[in-house]
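Exercise: predict the fold of this chain.
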Amino acid sequence: MKSWLIISLMVGALMPLSAWAEGWAPDTILPSSLKEYGLEGDLPELEGKVTLIDFWASWCAPCKAAFPEMEKLYQSFNDKGFQIVAVSVDQKAKMMDRFLAKQKPSFPTPHDAKQLMVKEAGIQVMPSSFLVDKSGKIRFAHEGWHGDKSVENLTAQIQQLLSE
């Protein structure tokens, strides 16, 4: 009985990573510039910064819940070398603009109008994010938004990467 429980917990812990099998995965090294993905908008360089690349959409309820918390993370760690690039996958820029007018984030929010980056990353769940270290290597991948649990995980992971 205990072995089934352990196996179930192990499989459950691995399930979120299964979505990354065909796209980016932990240890993928990203180019220092996101410009090659055809994103529209402000695009900071990745090199030398810990970066959260977040994929979101205006129609996504968990994305709406995540944005204020991401703003708090950004404000807490920005002066220590952390940045957020929140990539909109909305097909219509008008929808993205309405969402951003309400949220008012202070971090870059480029638009993946051609859906090139989201396809290459293999995103299947909104929101999804990757935490990238100072050398451009993806170190952590996240699917969905789980409130305080997501904030706790991201805070610990950001602190870890900033201290390296």
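Check your answer against the key: The chain has a mean pLDDT of 86.
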